[in-house]
Specification:
It is built from 6 helices and 7 strands; from the N terminus they run βαβαββααβαββα.
Amino acid sequence: MRVFISGGCKNGKSYFAQRLAKAQDNCGDLYYIATMKPVDEEDDERIERHKSERAGWGFSTVEHPVNIENILGKCNVYGSFILDSITALLANEMFGRDGGGGNIDLAGGKTLNGLLQVVNNIKNIVIVSDYIYSDAVFYDKTTERYRQTLAKIDRIVANKCDAVAEAAYSNLLIHKGGKMFGDLYEKIL
């Protein structure tokens, strides 16, 4: 099953994603596709926390901060995947060495095309994104375009997924695919 999980910072998205991916494992190949490029001590701590949370679960971590479609040639597409996160992937494509050099349209198109290739070729994947587009703060033009582009990508990817959930206050709210999602959700409780 293809599952899209969004939510605010530190609301349990990765926690639920890990359990969902493990519950979908049907061949023993579990992949955690890590997209974050750490830039400070807080990022390093978050990465270490995520690694310790999935220690002993059998996940192979694949660092892939850009060109996400390239995981298709590196992993068993019949395995079970977590892709964490679209938010970091878009930022990397926008500002990374191989990215759009700050061009949000180029980076957004590249990110979306890569994600669609992944979603169309992997049957068991949990995709994580951050819900960063609903506050009332006014941002600079570049940040606003980034947020708008992330929202567009999230909508398109969520539409392609079988289930859509929101992590909020360590709860998982199902917005799409509740009937399909029910059995899987019972496995992770």
